[in-house]
Here is the input.
Amino acid sequence: MENKHIASEIVRVENVRKTYHDNGVPVDALRGINLVVSQKDFSVIAGPSGSGKTTLLNIIGTLDKPTEGKIFLDGEEVASKNRRELADIRLKKIGFVFQAYNLSPVLNALENIEFTMMLRGIPADERKRRGLTLMEQLGIGELADKRPNEMSGGQQQRVAVARAISNDPRLVLADEPTANLDSATAAKLLDLMEQLNHESGITFVFSSHDPQVIERAHRLFILKDGQIISDKKNV
Amino acid sequence: MLLIRLAWRSLWRNRRRTLIAMSAVIFAITLSIIQRGMQYGTYAETIKTAVRMSTGYLQIQKIGYNKNPSLQKSFIVNRKIEEAVQGIPSINGASPRIQADALLSFRDQSLGVMIMGVSPKTENLVTDFPKKINSGRFITDDSTKESQKISEIVVGYKLLQNLNAHVGDSVVVLAQDFDGILENSFVKITGTFKTGSEDFDRTGAFMDISAMQNFLDMENKINAVALSVRNPDDLEKIDRQLNATLKPMGLVALPWEELLPQLKQTIELDNASGALYIIILLFVVGFGILNTVLMSITERFREYGVMLSLGMPQRKLAIAVALEVFFMLVIGFIVGNGIGAAVNAYWVQHPITLGGDIAELYKEYGFAPVLVSSLSFKIFVDSTLTILGISIVAAMYPLWRVLRLEPLKGIRYT
Here is the structure.
């Protein structure tokens, strides 16, 4: 029973603390976080600015290391891994969507999507085929040759989503993905992500204080001063 | 391929900065090629002039003669030696030599001289001595003048002045022969030469080699065969080929570097100072490249941070950045080498003619008053490799920073 439960877990965070030093003064960003994200979850980490949600998302995404505690991704403890191993985990298991889209300005939309597939060593024709399919699926098929500066924010964020899911990750982490979008565009993007979650079973974890995002959460973690003050399922 | 595309497009993202950095590479390589071209061209001209006024490009001698010359270290040119020389098409002239110290006396004046026995028929193939006559005429071939009673001598113009003699006068030459016996003979001064070498014009003299052989009782023996070559770049190969035949016979072929060590040292010293100048210049360029690459990389830390977040291995990111530098260098090398080659080619075809006092000075020392460039392959390879080396060193620090970059620090970099 226990094994079955663990098998459906994508993320497990155990007693994680993160302390920064600001001019020698220790600042506790996270204070004993415990959470579990299960497969196919559409989870949101919400909270006011400075509550630690981005720090937590970065730690889950192996971009940052906890001062204390353990992180399990797909059952594998990651806090003790070296940089090369972590890069490999990110490449194979995690997709990222950033607030500022963060597409490469010198690559066109299709090449941006192909980028992570290229890092995995997928052959060029296969990359192209998969990239175009994804673009069609996300409603941006006509943007393949466009560079980021030729696209709107919403279009760029869709390309970023396509890039995030192009390697079939177990988990997509989205840090304030709607922060730079108007509400209509944000709604469309969230529809799309919900659809991906529903149809493809991709697990999403958001950090956001956008009500539009929060109201769609299947699971909601509320953070305040580095601690989870609420963990609601089936919101 | 995508990595190459990424590097290529990143290179042109800030076109102006890339062009400035590329211009620094082009400027450095062009300047290096032009400067080294002038040096190499001048060296080649100096060497050519020097060997044409003394030793020839190569000499065949008895082993040990060069360090400690004596009449006894002589040899007879046999068929094997002739075949070895004739078998190398790059050799375009050969002339035998005897060299002896002697005393030249005219009336109450006696002066020490170094007499070179040469063949008037072949000497012009290896040296320009016959062209350096400034009064009278060069010696003629004694072997064809059986009735001639008195041999001919040509002396340096200063030697003639110091002897208080004139062209047409007969002087006494006194020297030890092959067996160490003191010999003397009357010789007639047929002319004087002016080579530009003060020492040689004061102490040098030429006689026909057959007359010298008779006078010094050397029969058919000679001290050296001076050789000229079509292309001085082939010297090393020719030297190797000749020595394969000569060494077992107790003979050796020596290139001009060993025959004229002072000239070699002078060129090496000048070459080193030229190289030092270029290296200093290239260090300045290196710092320019370092600055540009560092700026370009630092500006994109955020992008690199994103790439690392997406799972790009640090090594691959460093390769992408290195590719950018590589592209910049390749374009710089192609353009720089092209411009350098064009300038050098023009100055090879149209040497810079010197004028005024400096031209007179050149002529005085027997050199043509021109600055010639060179298209030697070595110049292009050396310049390219030097700049490549400095660029690699300059790119090390920026690449090291990329290799050390952490994803989050990159993303947060402002």
Summary: Chain B has 15 helices and twelve strands. Residues 2-51+264-412 of chain B form one domain. The mean pLDDT of chain B is 89.
